[in-house]
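Record format v2
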Amino acid sequence: MWSKRFKARSKRKNCKLPYLGMLTSQRTSHVKASSVFVRNFNTTNSLNSLSSITASLSQARQAHAHILKTGLHFETHLTTRLLSLYANHLCFADADLVLDSITEPNLFSFSTLIYACSKTNRFNQVLGLFSRMLCRGLFPDDRVLPNAVKACSGLSNLGAGRQVHGIALVCGFDADSYVGSSLIHMYVKCGQLKDAHKLLGKMPELDVVSWSALIAGYARQGRVSEAKGVFDEMRNRGTEPNLVSWNGLIAGFNQSGCYSESVLMFQKMYLQGFKPDGTSISSVLPAVGNLEDLNMGVQIHGYVIKEGINLDKCVVSALIDMYGKCACSSEISRVFDEMEQLDIGACNALVTGLSRNGLVDEALTVFRQFKGKGMDLNVVSWTSVIASCSQNGKDMEALDLFREMQIAGVKPNSVTIPCLLPACGNIATLMHGKAAHCFSLRSGIFIDVYVGSALIDMYAKCGRIQSSRICFDRMPTRNLVCWNAILAGYAMHGKAKEAKEIFHLMQWSGQKPDFISFTCILAACSQSGLTEEGQYYFNSMSREHGIEVRMEHYACMVTLLGRAGKLEEAYSMIKEMPYEPDGCVWGALLSSCRVHNNMTLGQIAAKQLFKLEPANPGNYILLSNIYASKGKWEEVDKVRGMMKSLGLRKNPGCSWIEVKNKVHMLLAGDKSHPQMTLIIEKLDQLGMEMKRSGYFPSTDFVLQDVEEQDKEQILCGHSEKLAVVFGLLNTRPGSPIRVMKNLRICGDCHVVIKFISHFEGREILLRDTNRFHHFKDGVCSCGDFW
DNA sequence: ATAGGGTTAG
């Protein structure tokens, strides 16, 4: 009855507060009455006839003053009208004041304000007013209840939602169609699908929207069979699914990662005679993109053009996104250029699409253009461009853009932080990482699994594995990625014991490991020399866990066996591999051969590598080093000649190999020590950074040579770590380490120095800008500098 | 019912 009327009213556009207008009896005389009112508002009648829609704020204030002056605030009827005037102008503080002054507020007073707050999404205020109303002994009606429920779903506050449900039961409104459907939506929003389902069963009138919401809810949780079940149930109970129901199903499957289901439903819908609209298209296209089904994508694009829905902004950005995922960079730009009006969503899709296809610089240029044109860049725009940088090795740029974003006054969210954190980890700027962590704690987004996993990874890469563990332990929910991140952290730090613990804890808690988990555990075993255990895990992969053994696992095993000196075994494993071995696998063998100076196998590996990666100078250097160790100087010259004829020079990568060899020499006393290989790997990581950064220090690099004005620029980047490591490498074992000035010591550098101190059994004292770091027996103590 | 941005290994 009333609710139906209300619904019809609310659908009218340009009518912000439908009820308030409706409640005024003399609609036609509003304008006239209000103009008269200013001149002579002494009569209560003119106040009464003041329209809540057309009256200005100053008129409302005048009326307020009049009421106070004349002591009319005991007239509940008048004060309630004033309340609606203020509410209409969104002056909630004034409205509250009026409400407090009413001696006997009635249901009408409260509902007036509740409607206004609900319309403007002031959910906390709605609930506050609702509870104040209850405290007054006033029972809500079927108009207030749905607004209270809506507030609970807006806040995702299940507890409050259940309480309101209880009140609805007491008041006998739970079977009311409007109250009921709002409760169903609330339960779906809070993920309580069983409750929603139960309630739906009790409803005498069944509406297609509530059914659709439940279907989408099941689909979003990836509960395929239940979603389909509700679909059938709906039909059996006499409600035919409409386009909305289908769209919900398609969008839900897509969100839960059931991409092929999503596309399948789209096709089914089409075959049943439904005409896909813009929403259907923009719901199915991400799934098509994730499946990289270009054929299907092109067909849908054709349909879009035929039906003329290519003006829909969502459809355009979904098309750009789909072509980006299908690696069609030419199509991305075409669709974008054909767009009539520049839309921020499409711009964001373009940036992501370009960066996904390796066109990072283009993505950055495009972003700069949008910014220059004065486009209204939102969180997604900034997050997209930060992600493009951090995913493509442009870590410094990512941090710079983050700073720029903050200057622009755009607040980061729970997606921005996981995009930024890998950049912090990659260059080990603990300071920035910690700042992001603090932000997550303050804004409450630390409970997000993506944020948590990224924090674990960042701390591990900054050399703070304990902090990683703390983040891990404090996560309210964990998924596969969280487990893998902490596992990778322990592997990175050479903590095989902890890695094994995590690996078993993970399975014990019901989380199945995947191929990444195995890469981590194999790497951990390999770094700690746990050959047999590594082999055990490797063998259990397909046998016990049903996980396909990939190329990278073979590469791990070659490294594992190679480090243990079992080079023949490593070689036979390569020969037995079901795949054609790639550069990583042969590279692992060649590196192991260099460690053990095995010439025969080294030659075999090098031969393959020369074919697979002819332009990688590192392979030539490794082989020549093996020859050199055997005193085969003619062979050394031959390899050098090969390099020369190929035009390969000792690039930074080459000098890096020299550094690596220097570490070998430094640690020559304990070649087989498990931790040594970890250092080599750490150095490899640094080498990668060196290559990426385009900044190539030579082995005798000293920071003191740098011009004063450039120093700060270099120091805030990653070169500091390299400088420290190079500095260390240039000293003879046993000699005191010279104190370096104005360096910040963090992350990888910390790890490397710690291990060097451990192996050489010497004390190292380094100073930061304001702290000292004392390394002894692999333990570092920090303190404020004298 | 409604896009667009996301974490882990190598």
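Residues 678-786 of chain A form one domain.
Residues 332 and 346 of chain A are 10 Å apart (CA to CA).
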